[in-house]
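Recall that a protein's primary structure is simply its ordered list of amino acids. Everything else, from secondary elements to tertiary packing, is in principle encoded there. The following example makes that idea concrete.
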Amino acid sequence: MIRFDNVSKRYDGGGDALSNLSFEIDRGEMAFLTGASGAGKSTLLRLIALIERPTRGQVVVDGQNIGRLSKRQVPPHRRKLGIVFQDNKLLPDRTTFDNVALPLIIAGVGDREIPRRVRAALDQVGLLKKENKPPRTLSTGEQQRVGIARAVVTRPRLLIADEPTGNLDPWLSLEIMKLFGRFNEIGVTMMIATHDLALLDRLNGRRLQLDNGVLVEPDDEALVF
């Protein structure tokens, strides 16, 4: 599902943020991307989402070398992904329902289909009863779950998450990871960046560790919740 072949990323005026990365994530797999702040986790995810392009090497997603995509092909590529951010990026002047519906509207989904799919996504994250609430009235954990509902409402085959539990307490962090696990059980391929090693010790999942932009020994243990 995801393959990096000798990928490096260098920003203007600096060294390599990523250096000669090669790894593969199978379809339906769930992998955790770990490493200290500045190790390159966010850069790696930005390459998958085509927010950035590699300086060298190939990034292949679902059999396609995405580095060759034109600017016009970038939005359709991103619509195939579910993306979860640490800070949610919810629209404060819209309701929970409207925030989750936004990707469907952009994708041109029909007006009759949107309510059904939005409510199904909110039900999956336990927020169906708060569809008319604005984000400011929700707790931090609830806001993060709205972000997850928005990411999965388009039924993506691949979901990437950048520090999705960074603002949450340990109990809520575990609940969010279990929620990701349930999506993975229905076939969604997942790559989750996190620095919370104590949380991962409880999950016992596969890890890909970055150190100053270099991939160090991955852990191939099966995910257990």
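Residues 170-185 form the longest helix (16 residues). The first strand starts at residue 2 and ends at 10.
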